[in-house]
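Problem 3 from the worked examples.
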Amino acid sequence: MKKLTRSEYFKLNAVQKLFYNIFLFFCAIPPILASIGKAIWGGIKGFCKGIKNEIVDTVKTFGKGTWQTKVSYLIMGFGNLSRGQIMRGLLFLIAEIAFGFYMFGPAKLSVDNRAQNGAYWLDKFKTLGDIQPGEVYDPILDTFVRQNGDNSLDILLYGVLTIILIIAFVCAWRMNIKQSKAVDELVAAGKKLPKAKDDIKDLLDNQFHKTLLSIPITGIVCFTVLPIIIMIFVAFTNYGRELDGYSNLFTWVGFQNFSTLFGGSNNDSNLPYAFGQILKWTMTWALFATFTNYFLGMLVALLINKKGIKFKKLWRGILVLTIAIPQFVSLLYVGKLFAKNGLVNGFLFKLGLIDVPIDFWGNSDIGRVLVILINIWIGIPYLMLMATGILMNIPEDLYESSRIDGANAVQQFTKITLPYMLFITGPYLLTSFIGNINNFNVMFLLTNGAITNPKLSTYGIAAGSASDYDLLVTWLFNVTTGAESNYKLAAVLAIMIFVVVATLSVIVYNVMPSNKNEEDFQ
């Protein structure tokens, strides 16, 4: 199918336009993936080029710089201190002293009588520990007592922190060289050097955005970035219940966990099949959960906002009640309603419609449809409120002009309302889709205790931990909280969830109208 011109496109009927847009979407995926790959490769090349330029500039600065600058290569901040920039110089010097103390200074001795400083953690990081806990004879107590060994988890954590601190120190050292070089240039030009009060004034004025963002960025690095880095490293270890890092050390295993997930092994032969089935259901669920709520919520908003409808506030209030009630309570209650001994089966018995209770959650086909329908009940109010606000802002002149041109209600919806809604809510649709991929509450609370699927059970995970209702995120929960506590596999699953979510986000964002045709709605 070739790409149509604008005039050819408008000659298509609604069904043809739908299939044509789907065709364009899939045609856009390869170029987007190619552009992503190109951008990643360009970023790698740019990073390598930047490192090279920094190294070259550092060497040139040492050769052409003043003696104060050359001393700064060993004593950080000396170039600033010797020129009267006390605050800058002290900050660099304190950073160097603190880093040296952390890396090589005295600290609490380990089981092998070595100081637990940065150098110790970096050395242990290669193996994640080599001294197992055991028992030694205590002559005073005349008995054997436990002697702690290495702790693999501590070594992993402090090893990663040490590597990050080394990178930060190298950046600070390079900044110290640049500062000294800048001072050399100002002195050579006969210009006045900025003092401490000038630096403080600059931080509270021209550079205030950096001052303001420093605290939240530090928080993000400590509480978001660092745990993600640790999780990535865990995926390359054999960390689990049996090898917890304390009573039994864990170690590096390379890509073995990824190979197990995608290729299987003697103990986990069902793992690739389970991952494929759960991934397929996750994508199916996210698709239905997102678009059923979106279009039905929009439809409800259109019906309530239609002229002539009375008690609009009442209808909106009834729908909003599902938001007011805590979702945790609602989902648990609704899940019990559809149990074998629940109210729904009891009601059907009284009506004489069934002779034996329907196992709603035991039949995965019925249960999956039921989960999607219950999610509609939960999600429509949010979309209704959002769509109501957007619909009120669509110019009425557009509808009046379309009526004069002979457009009916369906044409007005497809040509005016829907394009406008998609343009405004495009980013929301994307975030809603990603949120449904990771929608733990609905799936877990509704189907918790549902019959598991033996085909999805594996030796490496607690038996019976996977069911037909599991999303990747609920499966991840089962993997980490089951009898095996398979943290290594959980880390691999988390990485795969990120890859799936990130790839879909980039592809969908690049084909959304709000990103491609922004000028159409200005």
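Problem 4, a separate protein:
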Amino acid sequence: MPKVRTALSLAPLALLLALLPLATAGFDQASADEEAATYGTDLLGRVELPNSGAEQAQKAFLSGLAALHSFWYDEAADLFREAQTIDPDFALAYWGEALTYNHPLWSQYDGEGGRAALAHLAATPAERAAKAGTEMERDYLETAEVLFDDSHQDKAARDRAYSAAWQRVYEKHPQDTEAKAFYALSLQGLPRTGDARQHMRSAALMEELFALNPLHPGAAHYLIHAYDDPVHAPLGLRAARVYAEIAPAANHALHMPSHIFVQLGMWERVATSNLAAYNASVDWVERRGHPLYKRDFHSLPWLHYAYLQQGRLDKASECIDIIRPVALKTDDQRTRSAYRGMLARQAVETGSPLLEVAEKDGNAASDTLTAFGVGYAAALNGDAHTAEEALAELKALGTNRVHHTDSRILVDLLAAVTASANGDNEAALAAARAAIEVELTHLPPSGPPGNFKPAHELYGELLLAAGRNEEAAEQFHRSLLRTPKRTASLLGAARAAKALGQDKAAREFYAQLSNNLSQADAANPTLAEARSYLSQD
């Protein structure tokens, strides 16, 4: 399938830097331009890591390092291997390739691949250290030795040991910007503690790096991740506005700003970011000759979600049309899961039946998503029998972690709408409350809600239908705190305020709805409702 087509322009870098008056102190643009021309990192950002590798290998190595900071792991690995070919004894090129096998924020780790990359330098840690040209390079190699030490069977223990290794390097070389960046990233890769302290420690380091080098891809990238929640998102807006300009060649850099934009309900910016990211991945896959599943089927679901929030259902359906033929022909489970997730989200947001249920592929994760989507859409359309069958199937699959959410929430959400379809309001409210209890054990979503329907939002809708308007208003308020400016929550809040005679509040909610839906498909009923209310004297 072709790329999603739309007009997209990138502001000049000079304009980007003009937006960052606090981040450019001491920054030498002429020096940056010279280095970009030398090392070719102008489309991936500016990184600095003095090393003993051959001069001819520096362009590939530094470009690989910059790509690594944008989580462009496949491209980074290719670039590091290119540096190895030029200089077979370039120790840090093997270190860099090894790190591409660890994706700390995605919970993906290939120990065998990382150890194999290190073994290409030399057989043992001691032999590898002997090939490092400087003390700092030996310290860097040590972090990879810790990361790929197969004695760490437990992921949490391995991540803690890895972060401690980077802390030692950073404290030993406090002026080294790369040690600062990798230490900050390692902090974010640790198990979440339930509060923001860990991420704020990481953010403090990256704020320092961002001031020293506003073109460092890791600084902008890791700041966005650190501030990726509804409370801290305003702090991440500066990095979100510029990261795509820092590394425009990396599709993940084009996608990442949308993490902040989602938290702030900036739906047009969410759509633009993910549209650019997906299209860039299409170009890269074609240029490199990679299989189609290597396209950015992480950004495409985010684009789909943005379109749904904007009421652009035709565009949302186009996104599903793009991923469908790839998902049905590949064995790549991430692509298949992304497809099932998009189908489930479309069903939940619109009530559209899932006609693709016959395309089940036998994968438990996919079956869970399909059962939930089928059942939810059926319940919304009053088909209690189909909803009950889907709920029974969902329960039979058991509880597990699927598509970035806790399947216990999916069971409770589906139970709630199924009970509602059967006219059992008390059972529906009880199931929705149970979903809230589970949901609150998790942090607010980092992007589109993984459980597809925020539990507070559903509870509010059920309360509203029962005429319990004040309670409903409170639930929509709580939903909007976790998922700001979600269209369905705004609609519920507007209707609750209207029912309570709170005209000012209702107008504010309807005005935001009208803004969300300014590009909605023709005859969008929610937009018509908002405009009708706002037109009243």
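Solution to problem 4. The chain has four domains: 36-226, 227-310, 330-453, 472-537. The beta strands are 102-103, 108-109, 401-402, 405-406.
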